[in-house]
């Protein structure tokens, strides 16, 4: 079994996933707009440029997402990213927080070498984690 986060957007999916591809050093492996889909004729014209499905693959896994109908604010939740080094935690946290809001600055905690929480410029909540060895 594999768990894959699926992020909802309101017209910002393309921009957000292009940004995430840079942050996570990954690649967009699939992207389709509503206008490119077989259902295009059944969809309102204003949705044709919106993303129906998007997949980002990186060495660490997969993230998927889409634009919902206009006005859709998406589901709430938080994506946890666990990295192998403190330097990578700092890099990812800094990149994701640019233009966003830091809710817990990245720092050492009792469970992690580095842990921080933020909401990115697209309104998505993230936790960045570099775990300490467990006893």
UniProtKB/TrEMBL annotation:
SUPFAM superfamilies: Glyoxalase/Bleomycin resistance protein/Dihydroxybiphenyl dioxygenase (SSF54593). It comes from Dyella jiangningensis. It holds the Pfam family 3-dmu-9_3-mt. This is PhnB-like domain-containing protein. Residues 2-128 form the PhnB-like domain. Gene3D superfamilies: 2,3-Dihydroxybiphenyl 1,2-Dioxygenase, domain 1. Signal peptide: none annotated. PANTHER family: PROTEIN YJDN (PTHR33990:SF1), PROTEIN YJDN-RELATED (PTHR33990).
